[in-house]
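User: Sequence in, structure out. Go.
Assistant: Echoing your sequence, followed by the structure tokens.
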Amino acid sequence: MMKNKATHILTKIAVNIGRLLMAITFIFSGFVKGIDPLGTQYKITDYLEALHIDWMFPSWSTLVMSVLLATAEFAIGIFLLFAIRRRLMSKITLAVMSVMTLITLWIVIADPVKDCGCFGDAVVLTNMETFIKNIILLIFAVLLWRKPLEMPRLISKQTQWVVINYTFLFSIVMSTWSLWYLPQFDFRPYHIGANIAKGMEIPKGAKQPKFDTTFILEKNGERKEFTIDNYPDSTWTFIDSKTVQTEEGYVPSIHDFSIEDMKTGEDITQEVIHRKGYTFLLISPHLDFADDSNFGSIDEIYEYATDHDYPFLCLTASTEKAIRHWQDITGAEYPFYITDETTLKTVIRSNPGLLLLKDGTIIQKWSHNQLPQLDDESAPLDKLPEGKLSVTSLGKKICLSLLWFFLPLFILSLADRTWAWTRRFRKQKSAAGQTGESDSTGKDNNTPVADEG
């Protein structure tokens, strides 16, 4: 008897440890995807390209997938945390983890993407680390599936629908907000406060990458491969060479940022990132797909920058034809420069988006829906809030996010528990009153009362 009780306690502890780990993982994964739906969309596109089926999915469909994936993961985590629909959620969790584990097994074997994107840019895991993580979670998912009722509810069954609806609403609103403005959390190397030049530096004594080069040479119709250590004499004729990286070296956080003059081919990166004072950078990976609804505000900011001698550059990966079309429909007079498409997508999650540099440091970022109001009557930037570095600490952002979501749910849970206790007290009082009436009428007070639990 004691052994069975101890086994039951240990099982319950294991189930709820697994439940908390699964809930935290899904909540975090869904949250970081939800606050950066464009980043999640780019990762989904990477998977589709690896499968050679990206042509089947238009851009809007992968964005919808991104929002739905984030919402689903976030909801699974919250429902596990509150133990909502325990039997159903344990089955869904097991199914999701089974699929995810198979996908990560595939990316370990085939290596189609650099990282799985499980936690967006917040936490980057190698493909093997992701696979191991999913194996552990899959074991807990099996345990939850076997013992779903060992998870105690944090909210009564009658009011679960409120948590369900609030969770879906919160996640969708969070993604929509991030799409319209910018992600509330920026885990990328081009965050506000980052100095681009410093991000490109390689520390002294940092580990350098190692390469092996093989030379293919020919003599008397015979071809052989040689290394630098056993390179033959001049009687051999050089045919080809192969260089393979054998060890990775230190990679700076910003390693792919360059600005090239599209007309002359001149690289002006160092000139821009080391310039003293303010510089505006208009970012658009592809002008073909850029939102042109706020081009008037962009033109006003360009005129303001010209009046105050602030450089204003548009960085894009677009073709000359696309640039000319943009100029035709917007009347743009600012200069255009070429930068890598992936880099531009990493710099800002808006097309177009606007950056303000001061001495090479990113001090402001704006979505095209949130552009600053700067015109010929505005003061110089050093006298405006827009020209000041304003960084909200990560801790404060996390606390605000937790408050926005968990405070209403905590109040709901407290109200729900209070109502349940009050209802139970009333039932007990009513039952006691009925017992008293029974005693007064001489009836047997040992008559069992029907179970109402």
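User: And one key feature?
Assistant: The first helix runs from residue 2 to 34.
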